[in-house]
Amino acid sequence: MKIWGLHIGFLIVFVCYSCSNESATSYSPTPSPLDIPTLFEDNILAPVIPIDNPQSAEGIALGKKLFFDPILSANNTQACADCHAPENAFTDPDRFSDGIDGSLGTRNSMPLFNLAWNYDEKFFWDGNTFSLEHQAFVPVTDPIEMKSTWTDVEQKLQQHTEYPNLFEKAFGTSNIDSTLVTKAIAQFERTLISSNSKFDNYLLGNIQLTPEELNGFNVFMDETKGDCFHCHGSDKNPLWTDNMFHNNGLDETFTDLGLGKVTGDPADNGKFKSPSLRNLAFTAPYMHDGRFSTLEDVINHYSEGLKPSSTIDPLMKKVAQGGVGLSEEDKADLKAFLLTLSDEAFVNNPEFSNN
Question: Among the three residues 133, 164, 193, which one is the final residue of a domain in this structure?
Answer without folding.
Answer: 193
